[in-house]
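cron nightly-structures :: item 1 of 1
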Amino acid sequence: MSERLVVAIDGPAASGKGTLARRLASHFGLPHLDTGSLYRAVALRASRDGVAPEVAAGRLSAADLADPALRDDAIGQAASRVAANPEVRAKLLEFQRNFANQAGGAVLDGRDIGTVICPAAPVKFYVTASLEARTDRRVGELRARGGDPIRPRVLAELEERDRRDSGRADAPLRAAPDAYRLDTTDMDAERALAAALAYMAGKGFRRAGS
């Protein structure tokens, strides 16, 4: 299709939205932005520079988005708090929209992509999974990084993050009315990708040559 392909993917932590976003971007040859990394980068720079998050948001560079420390769980928790700051969100809004408006399109994942950042995106997903499944995934991720997570603590942190993300006044986590809901509780990454591609094919979006 000639229509620019913008794929907006939202969902709670550890639902599988990031993995799906990366795979869809690779499949269609599109750039990908994990918008959560922007808030992680703001939280990390604010901590390192000793400045307010809204100041840190104005200091971000491409190098900040590649910092390995962004994946630390503590930074993820801090990013959720930073994301509730309206001044930070306003400063990052233009960056995200410019990324989405590239000539061929893009894939973006986060918590307000389909509702705020790209409300006119032709393809929207809301990716979710049960709290138990998401806890198991997060525990597995932390162990893979060499950590020794305590499962009840991880579960409690996810519950708190869900409440914070869904309850914030500015751009709360919620599904866009026209988003395709994809429950990955019983899906691995391959099945989630297959389900997403089947939905997109039904809307006329296929990889060139397929």
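cron nightly-structures :: done
The chain has one domain: 5-202.
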